[in-house]
Amino acid sequence: MQEKMPVVDMLERWAGRSRHRLHMPGHKGGRGLDNAPGFDALRFDATELADTDDLFAPAGALKEAMELAAAGFFAVWTRFLTAGATAGVLAMLLSLEPGADVVVGRDCHRSVAAGVELAGLRPVFVYPETLEDGLPGCVRPDRVEDALKKRRAGAVVVTYPNYYGLCPDLGAIRAAADRHGALLLVDGAHGTHFASGAPALPPYAGRFADVWVDGAHKTIGAMGQGAFMHMGARASDKGMARETLERALALVHTSSPSYPVLASLDAARQRLFTKGAEWQDFALSCQEALRSIDALPGLACPGLSATGRAGVAAYDPTRLVADVRGRGLTGYAAAPILKSAGIEVEMCDGARVVGIAAPWDPGALTALRGALAALKGAGRGECPPEPALPPFRAQAMRPPSRRVELVEVAGAKGRVAAAAVGAYPPGVPALWPGEAVNADAVRYLKGVLNSGGRLFGLQDGKLPVFGGQAQERGGRRGNPEKGPPFC
Fold this sequence. Notes:
This protein has three domains: 33-274, Aspartate Aminotransferase, domain 2; 277-373, Aspartate Aminotransferase, domain 1, CATH 3.90.1150; 397-482, Alpha-Beta Complex (Molybdopterin biosynthesis moea protein, domain 2). Helix 10 (277-294) packs parallel to helix 12. By secondary structure, it is an alpha/beta fold. Helices cover 30% and strands 15% of the residues. A seven-stranded mixed β-sheet has the order 2-9-8-7-5-3-4, with helices on both faces. A three-stranded antiparallel β-sheet has the order 11-14-13. Strands 1-12 form a two-stranded parallel sheet. The chain is globular. The chain has helices spanning 6-16, 61-72, 84-94, 110-119, 141-150, 170-179, 216-219, 242-252, 259-274, 277-294, 331-340, 363-373, 439-450, and strands spanning 20-22, 77-81, 101-105, 122-126, 155-159, 166-167, 183-187, 211-214, 227-231, 314-315, 319-323, 343-345, 347-348, 352-356, 397-398, 404-407, 422-423, 455-456, 463-466, 471-472. The protein is built from 13 helices and 20 strands.
């Protein structure tokens, strides 16, 4: 029995298939690292030695590489991460004062929910807008301003862009944060390529944020778990110190960073800032491909017309979003059909398929258009509640205890969620820890599962809840704008 290597065998089969990888990681099977021809993951697998520097006490090559990255990314300080953008998000939040209020876009990633809980913060939720076709839009600056007027928050946390490539008006949000002395923390995990400066792409988050995180493995050539964390020049004016960020990062990051991932971050940075023009050419090609797909009967590319509506200030055309409901299919049903045609997309929902494209696989654009054109369905697909944004506002409740139980999703009404739970991808929590599970929440979660989607946060297929029944905070009806009670 011990002769078996199931993970090795699985990945060998997976890597051996011929298809277009419209999903993470952004190097697309190594093609995005062809600017580093000597790259060898196993040969580069090292540890902190006299000749290999130390990520948390850099003095040689790592120090130089991170200084080069900071210069390119409009930062005064940059740290390479090999524990994913999640480590950077956690560190940003752990650097805030315990118990502080923080304005949080409700379309944030699950890592924000984890960071808020670990740091003992009080989230003040701001809900993004939704486009007419159900596509999740963005947080509006005036809503952020309103939240800052009501609560003296120390920071604002914004996702830029969202999983569908839609970007809020980060400049206006920055202005609102500045007026109230709040730090602007940005989860820019899906927008690292914006730093290329390509005019056809949205502005880069580093032009506005005080502290931000780039998920370099998502769109540029870094390996999985490769990311950057940055601090801007004005963060110190609002009380953020580099030393505080470094201390917080050491709490959540592995002490044994992956040297192959570090090398891929260096190579990805070098390509981004020496071959940035390839992103402009490719973004224009993506725009053309999207317009071509949008013109096909029964298909729509909603990002093309999203700017200026529902809080959307810009759209990333390299995020290939196609609504397939007009072909009588849900996104969940379309994804395996596309896979059989050699197209493996990043995610799907009840209405759409979503691909992540990169310049080193230009053939994927033509292949995707052909595969989408051939889609056929038996009838109009049923679209469940959108997995990118919960269509309900659960009440913030007081956990009856810290003891965790597992219950069936269908029977969870009235209990208090003990974990962030939602569709994956995109990893947006439909329930935060400490929120009461209401009928809408149950309906939403069941809808995702019944449609073929996946949920994160479950254990053995069941929902973690705190022991006992939900208790309203202080004997009053919970306020969803004030967030989970134990933060």
